[in-house]
Amino acid sequence: MADRLELAKLARAAHSGVLSVEAAAKALGLPARAIALRLASLARRKWIVRVRRGLYLIPPIEAEPGKPITVEDPWVLAREVFSPCYIGGWSAAEYWELTEQIFRSTLVVTAAHVRERTIMLVGHEYRLFSVPRERMSDMVLVWRGSERIPVSSREQTIVDGLQYPELCGGLRHVAHIMGEYGRIKERDFRKLAAVVEGTGSGAVWKRLGYLSELLWPGEKTIIEDARRHLSAGNVRLDPTVAHRGKLLRRWGLLVNVSVSDEDVAA
After folding, report:
1. CATH code of the domain made up of 2-57
2. 151, 140 Cβ separation under 8 angstroms
3. For the chain, what are the domain ranges?
4. Is the dihedral of CA 24, 26, 28, 34 positive or negative?
5. Cα(142)–Cα(100) distance, integer angstroms
6. Is the Cβ–Cβ distance between 149 and 188 less than 8 Å?
7. Pairing with 224, which of 11, 12, 17, 153 sits 20 to 30 Å away (CA)?
8. What is the DSSP letter of 233?
9. Nearest 10 degrees: Cα torsion 252, 255, 261, 263
10. DSSP 3-state percent helix, strand, coil across the chain (nearest 5)
11. Is 135 helix (H, G, I), strand (E, B) or coil?
């Protein structure tokens, strides 16, 4: 009975089933050393699941004994493990309904020190992308059940993809996301230009200008903004593709991938 009462207290202290040692210590009123031993004991008896050092998962009451335990919401676990971070790239694009493509992993942009680019936690795959802490900008907090999770804005998602196309599955998929963005009523080209300006990246302006001409030919303002910010030198349209491509002088771009109507179609 004591174990069940403790477990109930721990479940109330957890965030969508995710429990830190600090939260457990506060819930049970025990010092850190004692709570660490207590949690380890509960994990050995399979009452809870150890995710990684200092972090545990409380299985839902309805979970069947012997069945693999999965996290209720992978985004909540990402926040607890990789903070400071935000959900970005293809995962943010899915959230904002800028893509219908389904990705099996959650893309996390983090300023935390991580050694691996891909991590499996409690049966879910996370793809991690490290940035300096000062790059953690233009996030919005969205509700996931009772939890608020940081996600890159629509505009930051596009700009991240223009700077690092691998975050969105490659430049062609970035173009598709931009095509969808141009169709929604929430589009804000001024905000998009402001986010690009915040990067201080000439390469991002070049890619934005080129793709804007293709996707949004009527949006003269953002195309002219890109022209005013042109920098010296040439960059590849998709830096993840080794092929050099054909030089487009007016944008200083080596067009090394083809962006077709199929890539940007709804």
Report:
1. 1.10.10.10
2. yes
3. 2-57, 78-264
4. positive
5. 20
6. no
7. 153
8. S
9. -110
10. 45, 20, 40
11. helix
Query: Quick one: pLDDT at residue 181?
Result: 98
Cβ neighbours of residue 193 under 8 Å, at least 6 residues apart? 221, 222, 225
The first and second tokens of residue 49, run together, are: 């699941």
b (16+ CB within 10 A) / e for 173-188:
bbbbbbbbbeeeeebe
Positive or negative: CA dihedral 266, 214, 197, 88: positive
Cα–Cα distance between 67 and 107 in angstroms, integer? 27
Q: How distant, in Å, are the alpha carbons of 19, 93, 103 from that of 42?
A: 13, 38, 34
Tens of pLDDT along the chain (266 residues) come to 457 788 888 888 888 788 888 888 888 888 888 888 889 888 888 888 888 888 888 887 655 555 566 677 899 999 999 999 999 999 999 999 999 999 999 999 999 988 899 999 988 999 999 998 887 777 899 999 889 999 999 999 999 999 999 999 999 999 999 999 999 999 999 999 999 999 989 999 999 999 999 999 999 999 999 999 999 999 999 999 999 999 999 999 999 999 865 555 54
Amino acid at 186: E
CB atoms within 10 A of CB 69: 18
Rounded-to-integer distance, Cα 87 and Cα 129, Å: 10
